[in-house]
Automatic annotation (TrEMBL), chains A, B:
SUPFAM superfamilies: lambda repressor-like DNA-binding domains, Periplasmic binding protein-like I
UniProt cross-references to Pfam families, sorted A to Z: LacI (PF00356), Peripla_BP_3 (PF13377)
Keywords associated with the record: DNA-binding, Transcription, Transcription regulation
PANTHER family, alphabetized: ALANINE RACEMASE, LACI-RELATED TRANSCRIPTIONAL REPRESSOR
InterPro entries from the UniProt entry: HTH_LacI (IPR000843), LacI/GalR-like_sensor (IPR046335), Lambda_DNA-bd_dom_sf (IPR010982), Peripla_BP_I (IPR028082)
Keyword Acetylation: no
KW Cell membrane (keyword) present: no
Protein name (Swiss-Prot/TrEMBL): Substrate-binding domain-containing protein
Domain of life: Bacteria
Gene3D superfamilies in the record: 3.40.50.2300, lambda repressor-like DNA-binding domains (1.10.260.40)
Domain HTH lacI-type: 18-72
DNA sequence: AGCCGTTCTGCAATCGATTGCAACGTAGTG
DNA sequence: CACTACGTTGCAATCGATTGCAGAACGGCT
């Protein structure tokens, strides 16, 4: 405790040091040496290194990241961007976004990256993606959902490598995507309900976004193939919680004939639906079956617990990060389409 | 379309420009002028300004943020940090965190700030706050929850201005906090149940964190004052979803006597409790009343809908940001303790 | 023409850390 | 003693944008 400050003035308490040069002055070495010492470079003498590190600790010194990143031309920051393309009122606090974001953040933090959160509204800002990609602020970009911006994303992906997107994979697309087979998922959901003997179904969800459109197509295909007078109506339900609830209420009372089962585009929609049905005195699953999509953690916490089509979000997030890392290092990465999984609980 | 490139070589397509100097070369002006033109400084001729901006667009040029931020000594980035002090297994995807984070992100993005997400684990990294604060990466810090790190936060707050924390306010504390009157909230919850004639209550929540401890104290006070044989047991339930569910199951079967009402430390705990009770064949609220805390959006989506103590998260987030802005501009800001509000729905 | 004032542009220093290269000191060897 | 080799350290250029200050260009006025 008494052996580490032999140079500075006696009365100096613990003056805050703001840059390497100052610390170098105190340590009696050059700035370059301090930089190397703090970076644990092997070429600096072990004793000086320790001395400098101790001094840095004592004076509460941290290297200025801005300067460091500028010089090294890498930032250690990954942007997670959420495009609010269609449905601009969808809040960033959407439970699916937040769940995926949480897992991504954990994954990235563990690898020493910082996470920068970006909300993008394409209608208001034409080159939204460019802004993030070319800001010089990030080493890579993870995108949650394609919204209706498929072409814009393709455009950027052609010249910008470190980009991985959660969403659909179309044959021959340029950007690397990780996601679930939405068509199959939609089909599985509908088939499950049909298999339970239900014939009059409704799909709840706005099909402007690619992913949900595919889910709808899957459900349609299942119903068409099934035949036997099965039919599928469609109500576009928006994703913002505020709109959703009312729209579902309206939908439930305005639909044609007696609906037996609802295929919901997301767990959030499914939960809101169950709520509204409860309100209307319709019991789930006795009077109407409801099946969700996503299998968010909260699907297990609803009453009744949600039967849903599971996307493996945790593993998907890990795969996104893995692919991004590969791309940052100059490598390449293929798309990943994960199989959906039917999780049978109590709502259908 | 044909009037903006009269200097460069004829065959040059749209070469990517990487820095101001290059663009200056193309435009035939100096770097300084380009910088000023792109920043819309009034002192540059309107015609040159437009020409330069057009050129920048055409070549897909964006100023390097790292360099800009270094020079200007401000970053335009706010860190949102989540201390996982006690209860390290609590996931960053905790619904309360995520909800508050979502609103904060919206609020900050609107003001032109970027949001940097930081998960901090004090046990593993002693100077966790210092790392963020002194990295030179952010203009300010918003913290979600105090966890058990009150003293560490105080320490930093004494010398670091732009810091605002969601959490409790103790008399004379140095850091600026925004939060709810947790003691009063806990008291209101218990009083409400007592008022319904329930006498045997349990508080579900781990009191290591300050906020929850205060809620518990409030509930205790209410029960003590009420007298008449009312009593309050306590089960520490952790905040991570995985642990929570099992612990609640155990709690419900191991408690002393016939419990009539549960005061939960959070909505997440309340929902998990309702689930477990449902499993055990205990009807809510008929057999047992359950009251939550927070009033997260999902409180309205549970079945039965949650009766809960509302924290005004949206307004709280706005206030946090407002105070942070004031501090960044060198001003000062007082703490805010918001009154909790009893929201009566169906679970109690 | 000469002078002043205004408006615009260029020059060069600056932010703070990093790193290739040169130079230093010391020890070891012939 | 001279010379090489190695291990350290210092020097100075560099990353890219910003900005105070000086100076150029131009118009207007006497």
């Amino acid at each position: 405790m008494a052996d580490d400050s032999d140079i500075s003035a006696p009365e100096a308490p613990v003056r805050r040091v703001r840059n390497i040069a100052e610390l170098a002055g105190i340590a009696g070495v050059s700035a370059g040496t301090v930089s190397r010492a703090l970076a644990d470079k092997p070429m600096v003498n072990a004793r000086t290194r320790d001395r400098i590190q101790a001094l840095a600790r004592k004076h509460g010194f941290q290297v200025n990241q801005m300067a460091s990143k500028l010089r090294r031309q890498k930032t250690g920051v990954i942007a997670v961007v959420i495009p609010l393309g269609h449905d601009r009122r969808q809040h960033i606090s959407d439970p699916f976004f937040m769940t995926l974001l949480g897992v991504l953040a954990d994954e990235l933090t563990e690898r020493g990256y910082d996470v920068m959160l970006s909300r993008a509204i394409p209608q208001e800002d034409a080159n939204w993606l460019d802004r993030v990609v070319n800001s010089g602020m990030v080493d890579g970009v993870l995108m949650i959902g394609q919204s209706d911006q498929f072409d814009a994303i393709e455009e950027v992906a052609r010249s910008y490598k470190p980009l991985v997107v959660w969403g659909s994979n179309r044959a021959g697309q340029a950007h690397c995507s990780v996601g679930t087979d939405n068509f199959l998922g939609g089909r599985m959901a509908a088939e499950y309900l049909l298999g339970k003997g239900l014939r009059s179904l409704v799909f709840l969800g706005d099909t402007t976004g690619i992913e949900i459109d595919e889910r709808y197509s899957g459900a349609q295909a299942a119903v068409a193939e099934f035949g036997q007078g099965a039919r599928l109506q469609h109500m576009p339900i928006h994703l913002s919680i505020e709109e959703m609830t009312d729209e579902i209420g309206v939908a439930m009372t305005s639909l044609d004939g007696n609906i037996e089962g609802a295929v919901c585009a997301s767990d959030a929609i499914a939960m809101a639906t169950i709520r509204q049905l409860h309100e209307l005195g319709v019991a789930v699953p006795a009077d109407m079956a409801v099946i969700g999509f996503d299998d968010l953690p909260l699907a297990r916490h609803s009453v009744p617990q949600l039967t849903t089509i599971r996307q493996n979000i945790a593993s998907g997030a890990a795969q996104m990060v893995k692919r991004l890392m590969a791309k940052i290092e100059g490598g390449d990465a293929d798309a990943l389409v994960m199989p959906p999984e039917l999780v049978i609980r109590d709502s259908a």
